[in-house]
Amino acid sequence: MNIGKIIKAIRTQAGMTQAELCSRCSISQTSMSQIENGYKKTREMTMAKICRALNISESLIYILAMQIADIPESKKELGDMLWPTLQSLILQLISDEFKTSLVKAIMDQQDVI
Protein backbone atom coordinates (compact mmCIF):
# COMPACT_ATOMS: atom_id res chain seq x y z
CA MET A 1 0.00 0.00 0.00
CA ASN A 2 1.52 3.29 -1.06
CA ILE A 3 -0.55 6.03 0.52
CA GLY A 4 2.11 8.66 -0.10
CA LYS A 5 1.95 8.23 -3.85
CA ILE A 6 -1.81 8.77 -3.80
CA ILE A 7 -1.49 11.82 -1.55
CA LYS A 8 1.07 13.29 -3.94
CA ALA A 9 -1.12 12.59 -6.98
CA ILE A 10 -4.14 14.25 -5.38
CA ARG A 11 -2.08 17.22 -4.19
CA THR A 12 -0.52 17.69 -7.62
CA GLN A 13 -3.85 17.42 -9.41
CA ALA A 14 -5.30 20.01 -7.03
CA GLY A 15 -2.52 22.37 -8.13
CA MET A 16 -1.10 22.53 -4.63
CA THR A 17 2.61 22.60 -3.89
CA GLN A 18 4.03 20.44 -1.16
CA ALA A 19 4.80 23.61 0.82
CA GLU A 20 1.16 24.74 0.56
CA LEU A 21 -0.14 21.40 1.78
CA CYS A 22 2.35 21.41 4.65
CA SER A 23 1.24 24.88 5.66
CA ARG A 24 -2.42 23.86 5.66
CA CYS A 25 -1.65 20.75 7.72
CA SER A 26 0.99 22.17 10.07
CA ILE A 27 3.36 19.41 8.97
CA SER A 28 7.04 19.93 8.15
CA GLN A 29 7.98 19.69 4.50
CA THR A 30 10.55 17.04 5.40
CA SER A 31 7.84 14.86 6.93
CA MET A 32 5.53 15.38 3.95
CA SER A 33 8.31 14.49 1.54
CA GLN A 34 9.00 11.31 3.50
CA ILE A 35 5.28 10.43 3.48
CA GLU A 36 4.87 11.08 -0.25
CA ASN A 37 7.97 9.06 -1.08
CA GLY A 38 6.97 6.12 1.10
CA TYR A 39 9.72 6.51 3.71
CA LYS A 40 7.37 7.44 6.54
CA LYS A 41 3.94 6.18 7.52
CA THR A 42 1.26 8.66 8.43
CA ARG A 43 -0.19 8.76 11.90
CA GLU A 44 -3.96 8.89 12.25
CA MET A 45 -4.03 12.57 13.21
CA THR A 46 -1.65 13.50 10.38
CA MET A 47 -3.76 11.62 7.84
CA ALA A 48 -6.88 13.43 9.04
CA LYS A 49 -5.15 16.81 8.58
CA ILE A 50 -3.93 15.89 5.09
CA CYS A 51 -7.38 14.70 4.03
CA ARG A 52 -9.05 17.87 5.31
CA ALA A 53 -6.53 20.01 3.42
CA LEU A 54 -7.04 17.99 0.22
CA ASN A 55 -10.82 17.82 0.71
CA ILE A 56 -10.94 14.04 0.27
CA SER A 57 -12.06 11.26 2.58
CA GLU A 58 -9.51 9.12 4.37
CA SER A 59 -11.23 5.94 3.29
CA LEU A 60 -10.91 6.89 -0.38
CA ILE A 61 -7.17 7.46 0.01
CA TYR A 62 -6.75 4.06 1.67
CA ILE A 63 -8.79 2.35 -1.02
CA LEU A 64 -6.89 4.07 -3.83
CA ALA A 65 -3.58 3.13 -2.22
CA MET A 66 -4.48 -0.54 -1.94
CA GLN A 67 -2.47 -2.89 -4.10
CA ILE A 68 -3.19 -6.43 -5.20
CA ALA A 69 -0.21 -7.46 -3.04
CA ASP A 70 -2.15 -6.25 0.04
CA ILE A 71 -4.64 -9.08 -0.41
CA PRO A 72 -3.82 -12.12 1.74
CA GLU A 73 -2.58 -15.16 -0.16
CA SER A 74 -5.62 -17.14 1.01
CA LYS A 75 -7.88 -14.64 -0.82
CA LYS A 76 -5.63 -14.14 -3.86
CA GLU A 77 -7.91 -15.89 -6.36
CA LEU A 78 -10.92 -13.85 -5.28
CA GLY A 79 -8.80 -10.70 -5.27
CA ASP A 80 -7.61 -11.34 -8.81
CA MET A 81 -11.22 -11.67 -9.97
CA LEU A 82 -12.51 -8.59 -8.14
CA TRP A 83 -9.54 -6.23 -8.49
CA PRO A 84 -10.39 -4.73 -11.92
CA THR A 85 -14.02 -4.18 -10.91
CA LEU A 86 -12.99 -2.59 -7.63
CA GLN A 87 -10.65 -0.16 -9.35
CA SER A 88 -13.35 0.74 -11.86
CA LEU A 89 -15.87 1.45 -9.09
CA ILE A 90 -13.36 3.59 -7.23
CA LEU A 91 -12.71 5.70 -10.30
CA GLN A 92 -16.46 6.27 -10.67
CA LEU A 93 -16.51 7.76 -7.17
CA ILE A 94 -14.00 10.47 -7.94
CA SER A 95 -14.35 13.48 -10.19
CA ASP A 96 -12.98 13.44 -13.72
CA GLU A 97 -10.35 16.05 -12.90
CA PHE A 98 -8.57 13.67 -10.52
CA LYS A 99 -8.82 10.55 -12.66
CA THR A 100 -5.82 11.06 -14.93
CA SER A 101 -3.21 11.54 -12.23
CA LEU A 102 -4.75 8.96 -9.91
CA VAL A 103 -4.90 6.30 -12.61
CA LYS A 104 -1.24 6.99 -13.38
CA ALA A 105 -0.30 6.81 -9.68
CA ILE A 106 -2.24 3.57 -9.23
CA MET A 107 -0.70 2.00 -12.32
CA ASP A 108 2.79 3.13 -11.31
CA GLN A 109 2.46 1.47 -7.91
CA GLN A 110 1.15 -1.72 -9.50
CA ASP A 111 4.32 -1.87 -11.62
CA VAL A 112 6.30 -2.20 -8.38
CA ILE A 113 4.65 -5.54 -7.57
Query: Structural class from helices and strands?
Result: mainly alpha
Mean pLDDT comes to 82
Query: What is the CATH first-level class name?
Result: Mainly Alpha
Assign an overall shape: globular
Order of helices and strands: HHHHHHH
Query: Strand fraction band?
Result: under 5%
Strand count, sense and barrel status of the largest sheet are: none
Helix content: over 70%
**Would you identify the regions where 5 or more consecutive residues have pLDDT less than 50?**
none
Assembly classification? single chain
Please count the beta strands (DSSP E, at least 2 residues each). 0
Give the CATH H-level superfamily: lambda repressor-like DNA-binding domains
Count of helical stretches = 7
Domain tally: 1
Distance between the termini: 10 Å
The CATH topology is 434 Repressor (Amino-terminal Domain)
Radius of gyration, Cα only, in angstroms?
A: 14 Å
CATH architecture: Orthogonal Bundle
Structure, described:
The protein has about 110 residues and is mainly α. It has one domain: 434 Repressor (Amino-terminal Domain), CATH 1.10.260. Helices cover about 70% and strands about 0% of the residues. The chain is globular. The termini are close together. The model has no long low-confidence stretch (mean pLDDT about 80).
Key features of this structure:
113 residues, mainly alpha, 434 Repressor (Amino-terminal Domain), globular
Annotate the secondary structure layout.
Elements: H1 3-13, H2 18-25, H3 29-36, H4 44-54, H5 58-65, H6 76-93, H7 96-111
Helix pairs in contact: 1-5, 1-7, 2-4
Structure summarized in a few sentences:
With 113 residues, the chain is mainly alpha-helical. The protein is 71% helix and 0% strand. It is built from seven helices and no strands.
